[in-house]
Design brief:
By secondary structure, the chain is an alpha+beta fold. It folds into two domains: about 1-30; about 30-164, 3-Layer(aba) Sandwich (Glutaredoxin), CATH 3.40.30.10. It has helices at about 1-25, 35-45, 60-65, 70-80, 105-110, 140-150, 160-164; strands spanning about 50-55, 80-90, 95, 100-105, 120, 130-135. A hairpin with a 2-residue loop joins strand 3 and strand 4. Helix 4 packs parallel to helix 6 (about 140-150). The longest helix is centred in the first third of the chain and has 26 residues, at about 1-25. It is globular.
Length: about 160
């Protein structure tokens, strides 16, 4: 009897510890989803879509991935306002957008992407709100995400937003 109680308690504590660890890691990290999934989730949740256009060989893209997108303030801003998508300009992976199927390369061209990394902001209907080319430091990027995500861009400049 004591052995089964001890075994049950041990298993219970193990499961609780694993669940807590999973919850913590998901709080500290955002995960990109497919474009089609993002559009569906954005519509369902009233969020915008954040599209990160990159190339694997690009050092600034790599820094965005390894540093900026891992920063806790950036993670929080994405979680609050966006569904995150990554588009590799050299990928033949198929994506679906607004009923059309194309490769990631073709989608980047359809966005008229000219440089990498470039961040695109789309509303939940799929219209481009804006884009920001280049590498952006974490602090500025999280402010930009909150500026666009909160719709502050409709009534003030970015400079006014960050000075508040």
């Amino acid at each position: 009897m004591k052995y089964s109680t001890l075994l049950f308690t041990s298993i219970f504590l193990f499961v609780v510890a694993c669940t807590h660890a999973d919850a913590q890691s998901s709080e500290n990290e955002t995960v990109p989803v497919s474009l089609e999934q993002a559009m569906n989730l954005a519509s369902e949740n009233g969020k915008k879509v954040l599209i990160d256009v990159y190339a694997e060989w690009c050092p600034y893209c790599q820094r965005m991935q390894s540093q900026v997108y891992k920063d806790s303030t950036v993670v929080q801003a994405i979680s609050d306002h966006f569904i995150w998508v990554q588009i590799n300009i050299e990928s033949d992976e198929l994506v679906r957008f607004m009923g059309h199927e194309m490769t990631e390369t073709q989608f980047a061209r359809a966005l008229e992407n000219e440089s990498i990394p470039t961040t695109y902001f789309l509303n939940s209907e799929g219209s481009i709100i804006g884009k920001q080319p280049g590498y952006i430091e974490s602090e500025t990027f999280s402010q930009l995400l909150n500026f666009v995500g909160s719709d502050a861009f409709l009534s003030q400049t970015f400079q006014e937003f960050i000075e508040r």
